[in-house]
């Protein structure tokens, strides 16, 4: 099985896992799936109004295109060239700066300058030599972006990738749309970036967290209401060369791919925060995770490279099975 097949299989399993756990009894629920943001998106509603799902699908596709087109414009622009900043993009840029600070500079959307040398996000994958990496090192750095609410320019030949949290942001906007339509019970699952709105009938939504080591088992089953959960890990987007695993998550302070944990799952009030902080935590050692999750008030499930589960900052309070 090639790397892309591995990725597709992993994503498909995540979707099935979450849907089985959260929606066993779907007699009064309408579930639709579509492919967007590089993954399968499942929408489960307490409504059979096809207009709402079709409109949500259209909106999410539109938001994703807006993010993708902006990143493409930035990546293809010359230093000093002015690029218009749409409304949702400005919010995402602010979030990028926030996560950079929280991670002590380890998280940086401009690390795409380096990750692209490896072929991420889509391949073909390769390993660049050290000289090539060092020649691009000065291009990396959020401070090389100059932006306000209307425009952005870059000081160097950098590239950006907001995928670590933009997908979650789009799911959040989808949930806000559903609320505006009077929907009180729903779940949106975008490849494991998930929001559970309201209750599923008379109980909270039950969500299973995948075990990267065994597709027939779960690391944890949690109950959520008006909460989000997202996972970052080394088992979905990666390639291997000479026995070493190269993940899609990069540390901007070392310019190297990170392989610190098998997975990290985060519960938060929004999917964007779950998504972004899962990546931030992935880049940190366990003591730093403990400190930051207390400040951020986000329950965390860490699954180490030695297959040990570490539950932090109140994860057990959401757990119904382990």
UniProtKB/TrEMBL annotation:
Residues engaged in binding Mg(2+): 164, 275, 279
GO MF assignments: metal ion binding; transferase activity
Location relative to the cell: Cell inner membrane
Enzyme Commission identifier(s): 2.7.1.180
A Pfam family matched in the record: ApbE
Coiled coil regions in record: none
PROSITE patterns: PROKAR_LIPOPROTEIN (PS51257)
Top EC category: transferase
GO cellular component, one term: plasma membrane
Cofactor descriptive note: Magnesium. Can also use manganese.
Alphabetic keyword roster: Cell inner membrane, Cell membrane, FAD, Flavoprotein, Lipoprotein, Magnesium, Membrane, Metal-binding, Transferase
Topology of the protein relative to the lipid bilayer: Lipid-anchor
Catalysed reactions, as listed in the record: L-threonyl-[protein] + FAD = FMN-L-threonyl-[protein] + AMP + H(+)
SUPFAM superfamilies: ApbE-like (SSF143631)
Highest rank taxon of the organism: Bacteria
Cofactor list: Mg(2+); Mn(2+)
Entry similarity comment: Belongs to the ApbE family.
Physiological role: Flavin transferase that catalyzes the transfer of the FMN moiety of FAD and its covalent binding to the hydroxyl group of a threonine residue in a target flavoprotein.
The protein's name: FAD:protein FMN transferase
Gene source species: Flexistipes sinusarabici
């Amino acid at each position: 099985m090639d790397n892309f097949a591995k990725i597709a299989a992993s994503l498909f399993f995540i979707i099935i896992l979450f849907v089985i756990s959260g929606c066993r009894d779907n007699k009064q629920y309408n579930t639709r799936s579509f492919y967007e943001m590089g993954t399968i998106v499942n929408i489960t509603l307490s409504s059979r109004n096809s207009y709402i799902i079709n409109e949500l699908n259209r909106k999410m596709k539109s938001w994703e295109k807006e993010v993708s087109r902006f990143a493409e414009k930035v990546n293809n622009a010359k230093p000093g060239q002015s690029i218009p900043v749409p409304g949702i993009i400005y919010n995402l840029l602010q979030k990028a700066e926030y996560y950079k600070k929280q991670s002590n500079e380890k998280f940086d959307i401009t690390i795409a300058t380096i990750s692209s040398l490896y072929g991420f996000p889509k391949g073909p994958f390769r390993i660049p030599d050290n000289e090539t990496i060092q020649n691009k090192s000065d291009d990396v750095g959020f401070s090389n972006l100059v932006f306000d609410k209307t425009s952005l320019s870059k000081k160097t030949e950098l590239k950006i990738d907001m995928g670590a949290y933009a997908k979650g942001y789009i799911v959040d906007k989808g949930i806000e749309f559903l609320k505006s339509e009077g929907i009180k019970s729903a779940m949106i699952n975008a490849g494991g970036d998930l929001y559970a709105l309201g209750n599923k009938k008379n109980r909270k939504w039950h969500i299973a967290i995948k075990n990267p080591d065994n597709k027939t088992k779960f690391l944890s089953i949690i109950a959520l209401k008006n909460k989000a959960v997202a996972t970052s890990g080394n088992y979905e987007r990666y390639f291997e060369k000479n026995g070493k695993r190269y993940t899609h998550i990069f540390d901007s302070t070392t310019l190297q791919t990170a392989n610190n944990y098998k997975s990290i799952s985060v519960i938060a009030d929004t999917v964007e925060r779950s998504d972004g902080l899962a990546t931030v935590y992935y880049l940190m050692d366990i003591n730093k995770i403990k400190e930051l999750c207390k400040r951020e008030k986000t329950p965390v499930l860490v699954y180490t490279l030695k297959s040990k589960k570490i539950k932090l900052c109140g994860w057990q309070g959401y757990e119904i099975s382990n």
